[in-house]
Design goal:
The protein has 2 domains: 91 residues; 51 residues, no CATH class. 15% of the residues are buried. Helix content is 75%, strand content 0%. The protein is mainly alpha-helical. It starts with a helix and ends in a 5-residue tail after the last helix.
Amino acid sequence: MDRAHELRVLAPTTLTAGIGLYVLLPLGMFTALGAYAVIPALVLLYGSIIVSLFLVRRRNILIARGGTRFLSLAFECMACPPFGVNMVRRTTLGLEIAEPLPLAAVRLLDATGWAKLRALCVGRIEDALQSVAAESQEEKSLNAQRQRLLELDGGA
């Protein structure tokens, strides 16, 4: 959640870039407005991307991955502006989530949602059990995971 709060600063610039790319640019290209909409669209789009990149770098959002990761992100965003509009998504792709899915689901989902997810997870484990050798270490591990899932209470 701390990382999500860090990325909140990118919301206004992402919205501004989206308006430039998905509203003003099409207006300029497909209506009589022409350059009166295209030029502001490009200024909004690239200006927002530059400000977002500055904020990402200044707040060290990607520092854990090193400078090359930031340079790669900067190049992608400037070379292909839709990547800039998806800056929040692009920066979160590399973040690791420490909380296991079942524990997060128990905490975040209502009882019905948790029951559906648990059934899906148990089904996946049972599918995996069909393709492992009997009495193997992998089978024991999968059975233990299935049992832990079945024992988790979703706050019902």
